[in-house]
Specification:
heterodimer, A: mainly beta, six-stranded mixed sheet, 11 strands, globular, B: mainly beta, seven-stranded mixed sheet, 0% helix
Chain lengths: 115, 120
């Protein structure tokens, strides 16, 4: 099955700096890579995702890159703000039309943005 | 946007009792829902896949008789923790797929807010 590794487990940055979280996956057939933000006591919220047919996607201060050859993908947050502080999870899945896509999650990264 | 609602958000029960957690998709129909368990400062562990109108598919190591899943309608799945014990205390999260959105029409996945179960 799929195995997703995520690093670092904790990350502290100064407000305004950039944060980068990296994940690797094992199943070369995985084709969908979402990132979730989980605030304390709440469920995960999708913040950005990328499909295997693109190498990079950006949404305002958040960007994700994917290297299929190396089987790793990364989340980049620029101009960090205190409200970015949360646990971030990467995930990977494979599937095609009609299949019930299951996600394999990374272990999570606790991001703390220091004011 | 799509919303998935869980109820209750917090529940405390005595050891030996059963607890039911509901997961509802509020503005879309979900043929598939997923149930996860999350320990403090840990990742989400998939427990089972809930399929509308059929039996749930459980992950290896998850007791079917302990964690009963029912997906009776296209908008509701329930997880019942039977004969709860303190070790069942955890954060349970459901997710549901909106089949109208997402890659290859398999649907974007939305998560509920989670249910904190404490068994005394």
């Amino acid at each position: 099955g799929e195995n997703v590794e995520q690093h670092p487990s904790t990350l502290s940055v100064q407000e305004g700096d950039s944060a980068v979280i990296k994940c690797t996956y094992s199943d070369s057939a995985s084709n969908y890579f979402p990132w979730y933000k989980q605030e304390l006591g709440k469920g995960p919220q999708l913040i950005i995702d990328i499909r295997s047919n693109v190498g990079e996607k950006k949404d305002q201060r958040i960007a994700v890159t994917l290297n299929k050859t190396a089987k790793h993908f990364s989340l980049h947050i620029t101009e960090t703000q205190p409200e970015d502080s949360a646990v971030y999870f990467c995930a990977a899945s494979r599937g095609s039309s009609g299949s019930a896509r299951q996600l394999t999650f990374g272990s999570g990264t606790q991001l703390t943005v220091l004011p | 946007g799509a919303v998935v609602s869980q109820h209750p958000s917090r529940v405390i029960c005595k050891s030996g009792t059963s607890v039911k957690i509901e997961c509802r998709s509020l503005d879309f129909q979900a043929t598939t829902m997923f149930w996860y368990r999350q320990f403090p400062k840990k990742s989400l562990m998939l427990m089972a896949t809930s399929n509308e109108g059929s039996k749930a598919t459980y992950e290896q190591g998850v007791e079917k008789d302990k964690f009963l899943i029912n997906h009776a309608s296209l908008t509701l799945s329930t997880l019942t923790v039977t004969s709860a014990h303190p070790e069942d205390s955890s954060f349970y999260i459901c997710s549901a797929r909106d089949p109208s959105r997402g890659f290859f029409n398999t649907g974007e996945l939305f998560f509920g807010e989670g249910s904190r179960l404490t068994v005394l």
